[in-house]
Every structure is written in structure tokens, then in C-alpha cells.
Amino acid sequence: xxxxxxxxxxxxxxxxxxxxxxxxxxxxxxxxxxxxxxxxxxxxxxxxxxxxxxxxxxxxxxxxxxxxxxxxxxxxxxxxxxxxxxxxxxxxxxxxxxxxxxxxxxxxxxxxxxxxxxxxxxxxxxxxxxxxxxxxxxxxxxxxxxxxxxxxxx
Length: 154
What we know:
Order of helices and strands: EHHEEEEHEE
Number of helices: 3
Number of domains: 2
């Protein structure tokens, strides 16, 4: 029988995408962060099902990669309960800062997957968050070339 009539499952039929990198840091999350991870996993499942229905190999590979990432993040998520003690900066707190250039900024310290500094959330492993941990109102921290004063912790 000629090879022309044999359906092959070779390397060309499988799209090999690199895995998404998973942080080596503890996967601390807020309750909202866990909900975001769950929603991202569900969205990846839906995209995978749609890609399979459309027989779109590239989309299947992309969605499968996303599913593996979000499943791993879901499995390692550690929900950190809100800490009512606002005498020192901790995970989940919102911190109001005065920059050395006179600008005021507000950040909530959250998990890596839910961080979006432009929207006011900062990863707990970011240099600024690490500098703020354990500090109190009126303390100053130096991050890079900037000095920031803590105005409020909520």
C-alpha cells in the first residue's frame, strides 16, 4: 500500500508550544485571586472544547497549555485570609504611599496572578511589596531611586 493512503500522526500534526512559566514563589492568593484563577481555568476549558470542535490544532495546543498552567496554579493556591491588624503592612492590605515626587499612590498587595499595578494591585513578590512588608504608617522605604512614605494601611 502506498504511503499516500496512510493517515500519519507525525510531528507535523502536533503543535508543540512551550509551557507557561510557573513562579517558584509561594502561590499566596486572596479569595478574589482564587476566583480569578478558577475563572481562567474554566475559560481555558471552554476555549479547548471550542478548538476541538473546530478541529483547530493551534488553538487546541494553546488552550491545553493554558489549562495546564491554570490547573497548576489552582492546585498550589494558598488563600491568605485578610489580616485585621493594620499596624503593619501584610498580604492583602491596601497601602497608600506618598512618593518623593509628591504623587500619591495606592496599592493592594495580592497574589502574582491577580496583580495589575496599573489597576492598583501589586504582587506580593514585587520589590515594592517586599520593601513594604512589616512597615507601619509614617515609615519610609527606598525602592530603586525613589523614597516612599506610608500614609495609610487598610
